[in-house]
Write a structure and sequence with these properties.
Layout lengths: L5 E7 L3 H12 L4 E4 L13 E2 L9 E2 H15 L2 E3 L6 E2 L4 E2 L2 E8 L3 E3 L5 H5 L5 E2 L2 H4 L7 E5 L3 H10 L5 E5 L9 H8 L4 E4 L2 E7 L6 E6 L5 E5 L2 E4 L3 E3 L25 E3 L11 H21 L2
Parallel strand pairs: 1-2, 1-8, 2-5, 8-19, 10-17, 11-12, 11-17, 12-13
Antiparallel strand pairs: 3-4, 6-7, 7-8, 9-18, 14-15, 15-16
Helix pairs in contact: 1-2, 1-7, 5-6
């Protein structure tokens, strides 16, 4: 294998975790390759205004934030390959045709969506999967939350700090959420619950104006005017390619403590609690510093 394909560090993933890791490893004079994916940049590439990332008092568009991070990583010397990873051999520290002394897994997690064409069209225009990120944009408006687990309850409760009212739409007749979260939701006067109900359509051209709802027991259709739809039906960690090679928890999230030497984990691929750009960036920094220390001790 020629020198062009050998690296000190290979980073798989190009969201805030992966790009931050690259900034740190390249700055430490470690030859770094970031395999960014066909669609690079992570979830923030689907976000509009980001108001809670430090350093931008007027906010910044999600794609602009990611482009700034990438430019900074490139300036530090990180090389990029904008292709998806098809094969990894953790035991040999190889990713396709590239080899490294350490690998940082920063592949992130994907939101589970409803699968409606209108939903995809309106992501960032009223459709969201992150109340912490976007709730402030819906001050004094009506919104819909879709889901029945703890994540949906947390989204709904957070939104009540901003919105005038909301409905939780759940396709089953009971929630899966913990009892304490259910009690908090049931006792909140801003929240109305619709069991046995599904969102069948989201209305709006440039922004959400309402939804079409269907009751699952009799297929009755109704409409509900709203300005936002928050989908909280779960996440899927991007770890399938690593199955059988690194430690995963029961839900498929990567565990940070890896017995395999030279493997480091960063960002939403393991973080199913916070899922913020700033925490992902912090985990990227952490993984890079750990990798740098590991490589200096194992020359």
């Amino acid at each position: 294998m020629n020198d062009k394909k050998n690296y000190d560090v290979i980073i798989i993933g190009s969201g805030p975790a992966g790009l931050t890791a690259g900034i740190y490893t390249a700055r430490a004079n470690l030859k770094t390759l970031c395999i960014a994916g066909n669609i690079w940049g992570g979830q923030l590439m689907q976000t509009t205004l980001v108001e809670n990332f430090p350093g931008f008092p007027d906010g910044i568009q999600g794609p602009d934030l990611m482009m700034n991070m990438r430019k900074q990583a490139e300036k530090m010397g990180v090389e990029f390959v904008d292709k998806n990873v098809e094969k990894v051999d953790v035991s040999k520290l190889t990713v396709g045709q590239y080899s490294a002394r350490a690998i940082i897994v920063a592949t992130g997690a994907e939101f589970k969506w409803l699968g409606l064409p209108s939903e995809q069209k309106l992501i960032g225009r009223g459709v969201s999967a992150c109340a912490t990120c976007d709730a402030a944009f819906f001050k004094d408006n009506k919104v819909v939350v879709v889901g029945g687990g703890d994540a949906a309850m947390e989204e709904a409760l957070y939104l009540t700090k901003f919105v005038s009212s909301l409905i939780i739409v759940h396709r089953r007749d009971t929630f899966r959420a913990s009892k304490i979260m259910q009690d908090r939701v049931l006792n909140n006067p801003k929240i109305k619950i619709l069991f046995n109900t599904e969102v069948k359509e989201i209305f709006g051209e440039d922004k959400v104006t309402g939804v079409q709802l269907m009751t699952t027991n009799d297929n009755r259709m109704t409409t509900y005017d709203c300005s936002g739809v928050f989908v909280a039906i779960g996440h899927t960690p991007a770890t399938k390619i690593f199955e059988g090679q690194i430690k995963l928890d029961a839900k498929g999230y990567a565990l940070k403590e890896q017995e395999t030497k030279g493997i480091f984990i960063a960002g939403d691929v393991h973080d199913h609690k916070y899922r913020q750009a700033i925490t992902a960036a912090g985990y990227g920094c952490e993984a890079a510093l750990d990798a740098e220390r590991y490589l200096s001790e194992n020359r």
